[in-house]
Amino acid sequence: MLRFEWDNKYSVNIDSIDEQHKKLLMVMNDLHYAMVQGKGRIKVAKLLRALLDYSLTHSSYEEAYMSSISYPGLNNHKLEHQTFINNIKSFMEKAENPNIALPIDVINFLKDWFLSHVLIEDKKYEEFSKR
Description:
Elements: H1 15-36, H2 41-68, H3 74-96, H4 105-129
Helix pairs in contact: 1-2, 2-3, 3-4
């Protein structure tokens, strides 16, 4: 996997959320680059922290939007966000432990999560908002 690339199929047709998704992809690209280049634990840990911080901000924003449209899947969506955040925290703990190697599988997890979350879960509230 070379890079996370934005594609219009990821769009939920809400500019602010699309821009946040693009920002998440940029942070994931920075993390991917640092990991494959062997940039070191400190750089990877900082990028994971940035990913966590931005994910928290994005999740709050997206959940507030879903609440504003009375989206019935909000609670499930919140659980998905929390699971993602917990996984990032777990990766951060591993990155901070010099005795544990952080596998490149982290990148595959992020890619798979982004694709399934945006293309399946986020598309659900996009469809709901059109009603």
